[in-house]
Specification:
By secondary structure, the chain is α/β, with parallel strands linked by helices. The chain has nine helices and 36 strands. The N terminus is likely disordered.
């Protein structure tokens, strides 16, 4: 979508002294404003992702780490339950005491409950036989006790906002689902299939809202769990990483682990220590390769680096940016002025430049800020699911890019401004909220940043034209320690977008980024040939195709679009009526644009919608979108944008 009135370009801003982009005066009768944003070069903390510190069983609190937002917590089984009759409330009381106050620091926990911690103690609950290592892990008494205990954990933790996700744990040494160097009676050292089934069923039922991780990709084959690779990128244990890649659960389940520095040929890879891994480019890039290949969200042990060492600190920043999600807003378009009681349209394009999705359904908020940056109005985008903002896939260690580039997602909303909102100039900002407290929490990786979690876009005039477009100065993301969440979930006290909330997949907006011809906004091939103007030309942010019974256009999709119901083509023609001049092919169906849509092209831009399902398009395997113009027509069209909604 292109600017109607004003175009702002925001330059790259880094360091402690932040620039101020502005226009002295917005033009009269301001229409839509489009802004182009830049990615920050900062590494910064964000919920669920990054370097993952550990709280060990006898630690009394959580450490402070420059990137730490999610912490593994080793918990003795008997701290939570000793007698089978112990209540769920005992678990809640223990959690409240152990995790007191972490919500004010925006920290979350990955609990792992264990029974045996080698060289640290054994914590068998009452009534469970133990003593013979070959049989103590396979009794029905233990199995039934663990199943009942998991049900209690679900009641205590499944709706606890302090819990990030669950490591299933419980069975084996450290709760890692093995008892090596010991073996069971059958000679194996891994969790038996009967226990995988019992614990897998129990965890699936108990944790409807929290993600679950298990240790080995060859276990729990019938369950949709993520994995923790506890010898991450170790040259002696690459089978673990390959197994995680083969299970291919990362789109919906969280992968993580730790880098082991206590065994194997670590001097070869990944390095002898966290400092060695992070300061040596060969080691660091090797670990990053595995982060990208396994779509890893967080890693421990490697967090124990020396942040005071400049070379190590620089390497840590580079790696932090690769973990998990990294949402970058490329551009946004919004109403420049709105009357009180009127509609403010907001849309933006976002791409996930990280390694993994965001795994929970957190809302996206638009807000209007006063000059002191307090909130004057706020509203949520309806029908937007940030879990669909996927990273790329199929990592290429040679090019150090995903072969399947991340998609650009188009998000839009139409918000009703209160009729009693005071006239004035406000700053429009975006944020991702933790549903517990509805406070800004997960942050966009853009140079435009205000302390408190908001990404400012530009100025909007309510009841007037905006006075200017000066939205600076910006703040640093890394140094912002003001974010928090609440322990209770209360109703949202702002507005909701109506009639226009969409979460789309952008195929191409023809802004010459990537350059035309060559690639679309999915990062894969797009081009054209045979037109009167050859491959077409980019003109005022649209692809102009001039034809006289000639020309072909193609744009690869090569991914499922099953979650989208329609294709939207924003288009205009030189004369109008060009909808019968060319045929489209997508997902095994070929028809004219008129037959696909029942709509007409006019001399002004309009969105023409194609219902994919009703036209029989194979959305699971759409292949390539192509357009052929060898059907007797003679005119020119301009394609402004193609997206799926």
């Amino acid at each position: 979508m292109k600017a109607i009135a004003v175009l702002l370009s925001f330059g790259l801003l880094t360091g402690g002294s932040l620039g101020v982009p502005f226009l002295d005066k917005a033009s009269a009768a301001v229409g839509s404003i489009t802004v182009h944003l830049t990615e920050t070069q900062e590494a910064f903390k964000n919920p669920f992702k990054g370097f993952r510190p550990t709280r060990f069983m006898n630690d009394t609190g959580f450490s402070n780490h420059e990137y730490g937002t999610v912490f593994k917590h080793y918990i003795k089984y008997t701290d939570l339950e000793n007698a089978a009759s112990d209540s769920v409330q005992k678990i809640k009381d223990w959690s409240n005491a152990a995790w007191a106050g972490i919500e004010s620091q925006n920290k979350k926990v990955i609990p792992r409950v264990f029974i045996v911690y080698p060289n640290g103690g054994e914590y068998w609950p009452q009534g469970v036989p133990h003593g013979d290592v070959t049989t103590q892990w396979t009794t029905d008494v233990l199995k039934n006790r663990l199943v009942a205990f998991i049900q209690k954990l679900g009641q205590a933790w499944d709706n606890d906002p302090r819990v990030a996700y669950i490591e299933l744990g419980l069975w084996g040494n450290w709760g890692e689902h093995h008892i090596w160097p010991d073996t069971l009676a059958d000679g194996t050292d891994r969790i038996p299939l009967s226990f995988q089934t019992a614990l897998g069923d129990a965890a699936s039922q108990a944790f409807q809202n929290k993600k679950v991780q298990v240790r080995y990709p060859e276990t729990f084959q019938n369950y949709d769990f993520g994995f923790l690779w506890d010898s991450f990128a170790l040259i002696d244990d690459l089978a673990g990483g390959e197994g995680i890649v083969a299970r291919d659960v990362w789109r919906t389940q969280i992968n993580g682990g730790e880098v082991a520095y206590d065994w194997g040929q670590k001097h070869i890879q990944p390095g002898d220590s966290p400092n060695d891994t992070l300061s040596d480019p060969i080691h660091r890039n090797y670990v990053i390769d595995w982060i990208k290949k396994t779509h890893t969200t967080s890693l421990g042990w490697i967090d124990l680096y020396d942040a005071g060492n400049p070379a190590v600190s620089q390497g840590a920043a580079l790696m932090q940016k690769e973990f998990g999600y990294r949402f970058v807003i490329n551009q946004a378009t919004f109403s420049g002025s709105v009357e009180p009681g009127g509609t403010m349209n907001v849309s933006f394009q976002v791409v996930n430049k990280g390694s993994a999705p965001f795994y929970y359904d957190w809302p996206v908020e638009a807000s209007l800020l006063r000059s002191d940056r307090t909130v004057a109005w706020k509203g949520l985008f309806d029908n937007v699911d940030i879990r669909n903002w996927m990273p790329g896939d199929d990592w290429n260690s040679s090019t150090r890019q995903y072969n399947q580039a991340p998609a650009v997602h188009q998000v839009s909303g139409a918000f009703t401004i209160p009729s009693n909102m005071p006239a004035g100039t406000y700053t429009l900002a975006l944020s991702i909220l933790d549903p517990y407290g509805y406070k800004p929490s997960a942050r966009f990786a853009n140079a435009n940043y205000y302390t408190g979690g908001r990404t400012p876009l530009g100025k909007v005039g309510i009841g007037m034209d905006p006075a200017d477009q000066n939205i600076g100065p910006f703040d640093n993301l890394k140094s912002d320690n003001t974010l928090s969440y609440s322990l209770t979930q209360t109703p949202y006290d702002g507005g909701i977008s109506g009639g226009g909330g969409t979460n789309g997949l952008l195929l191409d907006n023809f802004d010459n980024s990537p350059g035309w011809p060559g690639a679309n906004d999915l990062g894969i091939w797009a081009g054209a040939n045979g037109f009167a103007n050859d491959a077409g030309v980019i003109e005022s942010g649209a692809l102009k195709l001039q034809y006289n019974n000639n020309g072909w256009f193609g744009s690869d999709i090569n991914q499922s679009i099953a979650s989208y119901s329609k294709m939207v083509i924003r288009i205009k023609g030189a004369n109008g009526g060009e909808q019968n001049h060319f045929q489209l092919t997508i997902g095994g169906v070929t028809q004219t644009l008129a037959a696909f849509s029942g709509d007409t092209i006019t001399t002004g831009y309009k969105d023409i919608e194609i219902d994919l399902a009703s036209n029989g398009v194979n959305r699971s395997n759409p292949g390539q979108l192509s357009m052929s113009f060898w059907h007797g027509g003679n005119s020119s069209i301009w394609i402004d944008e193609i997206r799926f909604e």
